[in-house]
Known about the structure:
Blueprint: H1 7-14, E1 30-41, E2 44-52, E3 63-69, E4 76-82, E5 94-101, E6 106-112, E7 116-122, E8 131-132, E9 149-154, E10 157-163, H2 174-178, E11 183-189, E12 196-203, E13 215-222, E14 225-232, E15 236-245, E16 248-256, H3 266-269, E17 275-282, E18 288-294, H4 300-306, E19 308-309, E20 311-312, E21 316-320, E22 326-330, E23 338-349, E24 353-361, E25 364-372, E26 378-385, E27 398-403, E28 408-412, E29 428-431, E30 440-447, E31 450-455, E32 459-464, E33 474-480, E34 484-494
Parallel strand pairs: 1-19
Antiparallel strand pairs: 1-2, 2-3, 3-4, 5-6, 6-7, 7-8, 9-10, 10-11, 11-12, 13-14, 14-15, 15-16, 17-18, 18-20, 18-21, 21-22, 23-34, 24-33, 25-30, 25-34, 26-27, 26-33, 27-28, 28-29, 30-31, 31-32
Amino acid sequence: MPEDRDPAAERLRLSGDPHRPAYHFCAPSEWLNDPNGTIFWRGRHHLFYQYNPEFSAGGGPVHWGHACSEDLVHWTDLPVAISPEPGTYDEHGIWSGSCCDAGGYVAAIYHAHQSGNAIAVSKDDLLLTWAKHPANPVIPPDPARIYDPCIWREGGVFYSLSGRITAASLGDGGDVRFGGNDVAYLFRSVDLKHWTDLGAFYTGGEFTEPGEDCAVPDFFALGDRHCLLFAAHSAGGQYYTGTYADNRFTPTAHSRFNFNKYGTDLGHLVTSGDLNAPISWLDDAGRRIMICWVTEGKSWDRQRLQGWAGVMTLPRVISAAPDGMLLISPAPELEALRRDPVHFSDLSIGSDSSYPLPSVSGDSLEIAATIDPGDAAHVGLKVRCSPQRACAPGDEQTVVTVDREQGTLRIDVDRASLSEEMVGRDPQVAPFVLADGEPLTLRVFVDHSILEVYANGRQCVTKRIYPARADSLGVQVFASGGAATAPSIDVWRLASIWPA
């Protein structure tokens, strides 16, 4: 936070907003977007993030905001880590990047907007003090090849990956200029100052669509393969897994964390209520933790009026499945927030019916449900439901559905809010197939305006919602096209990690 603002006071000031998350990370106030520089350092998880301290006042260059956590659940706000300096190469903003353990200190690489990629280092336990490299920008600007980078260290040598942002992603016809395929470029250095251009690291197009780019790349080993997280400005967060040899990455599998497309409409991207900008880090237990930015599903004007924008997902543990896809689950540390448990067992769900869960009500919940779909074509949960049980003009509900006919997991938000403030109403629809005889296991996290749904540890969908009715707090389980059973459903209220 800037020196004239107290983050605790800012959080308290905004705590009355009914859409402000209770247990997800958001900035104390103002604008947040991409997570940056995530690292486990001397006993703490560190999260840096794109932060605009003047967002509601009309905007300004972004900084690296900073928070840390000892348990992956509760976060402590720390002073802004890296700020733009007027009259210098980074005066237009400290854009996205990443950190690595440089051997006794931490090295950060970031994109100095319009100037190239730059280095800063920190040596203290809390990563409070950063020194910018005197040779910055160490990788000069190139609009076709230099953008929000990542950094890692192998055997005393530093590597940096910079994805190309296509002009198509910025809306000026770059498909023709650049060919339309996502691509990233690799650089190598032994001293963080002199960088050798090693050329194209990979070229996409087999799994992705023309116009997608490789923004905010994050590359790392995962089991017996390697993984590249990235985001396309036209399509949001996604990943490759594949092989890495001789400074080249060969993608062999691909999937997405976001399932909507924006084309060249960047305004839609930041008002969609969808997921973007995944980044990861290795913790002290050897787990790969991932966190992502989720945009507001409100208009720009409304975001400025509310005085804050942007939420991070819950920390997710990712690992490699045998087929090359990622296994994804919420960090188990989050169970420490559970309160007031309610348990249901052996529920029968008739065909084309919904079953309201008695004694379950809230806007800050975790739901763990095991459902045997039986012969039902569709099963799932409805959350943030207003009291009406039948569809009526004034009711609200957000619907989580596993469609066995289509092989999808989806969040439908067309009735999530009566308010015209909610503009991001496109559903999230992800591929998800249950094997014959396989039960459905859902972990659903409801946190005021953000919904995360994990299915069988191998798929996850995320969406922002803004119920307008104060009584839209109910939860239902449903089936259609056949009957189903729910051997077990557990619901907890989750405690807030912020001032009430």
